[in-house]
Amino acid sequence: MEQQIITYQQIKHNPEITALMERGNDMLGVLGYTEHSKKHACKVASGAGDILSALGHNKRVCELARIAGYMHDIGNCVNRVDHAHSGALLAFQILRGLEMLPDEVACVVSAIGQHDEKTGTAVDPISAAVILADKSDVRRNRVRNRVKARFDKHDRVNYAAIAADLNVRMEKKVIQLEIELDEDICSILDYFEIFLQRMLMCKRAAEVLGLKFRMNANGHKMC
């Protein structure tokens, strides 16, 4: 069997992956979760690749980060619970079927399996980049519930996010998340309390990349 160099664009336009992603997003919508569509997948893919590119990693490593970032939530089509692990198993089958190089399959699968804050942690640059890109995707248009009185805590945080930007500052060895929040909807303290576990995961991911994680909210340094 001849092994193939699989590209992000191939993954992005793969009908099997698209079907899994769309089904997972639909299921999460029924269950009241925020958007986990192709838009989120593309944003995480782009962010993960950009982080590693800024740090000087080679193009193939950046491409693998994009692939892992794009596929990271396909396990939602099975169940939200343990979706990182089921997603990793689905990705293994798909990528093996595409005849991707075995060591590259392993890198992508481990990054997917480690991305959830309840069970995972950064173990290498690819998993670290995916975690940082995923956890920093906070934006108003991820909220599907249009009745504010029915917002859960994640709806409130995302709806309050006017802007969120993640940047690598190499001169200071820092990766910094800048968030602008509407504090009439969600206070800075509430944001930090709700997303504390995610921010701790980002801190660990930054350390794996040789960086410090910093977060500013409305101009205030939070960590």
UniProtKB/TrEMBL annotation:
<protein>
    <recommendedName>
        <fullName>HD/PDEase domain-containing protein</fullName>
    </recommendedName>
</protein>
<dbReference type="InterPro" id="IPR003607">
    <property type="entry name" value="HD/PDEase_dom"/>
</dbReference>
<feature type="domain" description="HD/PDEase">
    <location>
        <begin position="33"/>
        <end position="148"/>
    </location>
</feature>
<dbReference type="InterPro" id="IPR006674">
    <property type="entry name" value="HD_domain"/>
</dbReference>
<dbReference type="Pfam" id="PF01966">
    <property type="entry name" value="HD"/>
</dbReference>
